């Protein structure tokens, strides 16, 4: 079980882990050993997540989420399979935990009378500067 919060956890059978070869420097070890982890989690088909958490996760415009609603995380920061596996699971837990918090509703506000007057005054001032730049009658002679 991958624990997200004290009340929410994802069972291991909903996570699909695949071990692949890592890229980057490392010589013969990188070419021989599959230490990188590709963790897949089907958000849309998950039974462990509440509907609102699923909706928030799927609404994210994240390139790691496929069109079918599968989140794909790849971890290859570390040299060992276990550390990369833990890293991928920790990142998934952090992502899901962030989606459990409902965003605050935006309270609509109006600009104050003073801010409107300041804005219009600045516009008038700018217009007069531009007007003064134009060719005056004494410049044309």
TrEMBL record:
Which residue windows does the record flag with biased composition (Basic and acidic residues)? 114-128
GO BP field: rescue of stalled ribosome
**UniProt cross-references to InterPro entries, sorted A to Z:** Pep_chain_release_fac_I
Supply one GO molecular-function term: peptidyl-tRNA hydrolase activity
Region Disordered, residue ranges: 103-141
Entry keyword Phosphoprotein: no
> Where does the Prokaryotic-type class I peptide chain release factors domain start and stop, copy by copy?
21-37
What are the UniProt keywords, alphabetically? Hydrolase
Gene3D superfamilies hit by this protein: 3.30.160.20
Q: Which SUPFAM superfamilies match?
A: Peptidyl-tRNA hydrolase domain-like
Q: Does the keyword Hydrolase apply?
A: yes
- Coiled-coil portions: none
At the top level, the lineage of the source is Bacteria
Show the Pfam families listed in the entry: RF-1
> What is the name listed in the Swiss-Prot or TrEMBL entry for this protein?
Aminoacyl-tRNA hydrolase
Q: From what organism does this protein derive?
A: Arenimonas caeni
């Amino acid at each position: 079980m991958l624990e997200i919060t004290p009340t929410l956890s994802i069972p291991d059978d909903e996570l699909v882990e695949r071990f692949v070869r890592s890229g980057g420097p490392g010589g013969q070890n990188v070419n021989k050993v599959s230490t990188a982890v590709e963790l897949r989690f089907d958000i849309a088909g998950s039974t462990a997540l509440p509907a609102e958490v699923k909706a928030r996760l799927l609404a994210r415009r994240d390139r790691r989420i496929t069109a079918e609603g599968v989140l794909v995380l790849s971890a290859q920061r570390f040299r060992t399979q276990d550390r990369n596996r833990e890293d991928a699971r920790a990142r998934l837990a952090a992502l899901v935990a962030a989606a459990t918090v409902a965003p605050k509703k935006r309270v609509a506000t109006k600009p104050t009378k003073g801010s409107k007057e300041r804005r219009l005054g600045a516009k008038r001032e700018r217009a007069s500067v531009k007007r003064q730049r134009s060719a005056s009658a004494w410049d044309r002679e």
